[in-house]
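Model it.
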Amino acid sequence: MDQTDLQVWLDELRVEHRDLDIVIEHLIDGNHHDWLRIQRLKRRKLQLKDMITKIESELIPDLDA
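Modeled.
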């Protein structure tokens, strides 16, 4: 993947991460106490965060020391 593809993918992951945050908040604040579903969504959100961090590190140019 080139840097443009990685940046597009990174943007998509950030949007999904933000959307999951909103859904989780809505489920917790509302009367939907399906804790198994909330835990699955939180796990997915953490996976997304890990992928975001990995892609961000790949986008940082290597510097020769």
